[in-house]
Design goal:
This protein is mainly beta and 156 residues long. The chain has one helix and ten strands. Helices cover 4% and strands 36% of the residues. The longest helix is centred in the middle third of the chain and has 7 residues.
Amino acid sequence: MSHLSILLEILSHGEGLPLPEHATEESSGFDLRAAIEGSVLLEPGARFLVPCGFSMKIPKGFEGQIRSRSGLSLNHGIVVLNAPGTIDSDYYGEIKVLLANLGASEFELSRGLRCAQMVISPIQRCNFTVTSCLLEEGDASESRRGTGGFGSTGVD
């Protein structure tokens, strides 16, 4: 499996935390850790912008997607609010995670907590052409769904 090289700049409040890494050889994402001093209590319904203590240079043609960690979501209701959060290749600021507590209990965020994960993905640039009709007569891409959305195909 090939590896993409990404430059990291560790910020002063991120010193001492482990570098981002994939948990296993087959892991799609790598963990992001909370670079906070002490701890922060996240009440039910609250949100908090978690600094990760580093900046990164994502290569042109790629993006970083910040996603929730499944265990935090299932066990505590802690989710990435704007999931997936997008980090563009032309952003060089600190990586931060917008967490929300959708659970029924308060949750303590502590320094070094693996609070989210990031996946690096290729992007595709688009050129748009305006048309008066999306489908041509007999178009094989016509589907049962058509213009229906938001549950139009039923519950099954």
